[in-house]
Design a protein that fits this description.
It holds the Pfam family EFP. Residues 129-185 form the Elongation factor P C-terminal domain. It is found in: Cytoplasm. This is Elongation factor P. This protein is mainly β. It folds into 3 domains: 2-62, Roll (SH3 type barrels), CATH 2.30.30.30; 66-124, Nucleic acid-binding proteins (OB fold (Dihydrolipoamide Acetyltransferase, E2P)), CATH 2.40.50.140; 128-185, Nucleic acid-binding proteins (OB fold (Dihydrolipoamide Acetyltransferase, E2P), Beta Barrel). The protein contains 1 helix and 16 strands. The longest helix is centred in the middle third of the chain and has 4 residues, at 95-98. 22% of the residues are buried.
Length: 186
């Protein structure tokens, strides 16, 4: 059983025998009452989003999830292809299983595959990853006077992220894969 202090974004839990991932948490301290935790949970089997509120003594059942290290190989019409690092077995996953993490998958990256009852349910990426900027507009002198301190840039996977004005094409940057935001220049 997971108490409300153990529940964070990315925690995998089980509700009515179905695995859920916590995608949003908000801790609220009530005036005279106890604290509550507001959650948004995404079903890893169907993709449905569920909102739940937990009081101080409540908790969630931990899901029995196993992790396996896999390498991302490539993407095609069938889906995303991976190779298990232990057995060298290749398999593919549908885009619905990958979700928004597809923006941060590049060839050769090692990720954790989450298995629930032997079925792949999700892919966990490293929190911060490095990407090469493939295109961005040049930073023009005087842009900061108008309050614009960021500009859009496209990384090697095609994902668009806001970066500071000093970032140029070809630069390697770090992106937080949980929020999708620029962290620093690598």
């Amino acid at each position: 059983m997971l108490s409300i202090s153990d529940i964070r974004q990315g925690t995998i839990c089980q509700i009515n025998g179905e695995p859920f991932e916590v995608i949003y948490t908000q801790h609220v301290q009530m005036g005279r009452g106890g604290a509550i935790l507001r959650l948004k949970l995404k079903s890893l089997s169907s993709g449905n989003v569920l909102e739940k509120t937990l009081k101080g003594a409540d908790g969630l059942e931990a899901a029995d999830v196993s992790r396996s290290k896999v390498n991302f190989l490539y993407r095609d019409a069938e889906g995303f292809h991976f190779m298990d690092n232990a057995s060298y077995e290749q398999f593919s996953l549908a885009e619905s299983v990958i979700g928004d993490r597809k923006h941060f998958l590049k060839e050769g990256v090692e990720v954790n595959l989450l298995l629930f009852d032997g079925t792949p349910i999700a892919v966990q990426l490293p929190t911060k990853m490095e990407f090469t900027v493939t295109s961005t507009v040049p930073g023009i002198k005087g842009d900061t006077a108008q309050g614009k301190v960021t500009k859009p840039a496209t990384i090697e996977t095609g994902y668009q992220v806001n970066v500071p004005l000093f970032v140029k094409e070809g630069d390697v940057i770090r992106i937080n894969t949980e929020t999708g935001e620029y962290v620093e220049r690598a």
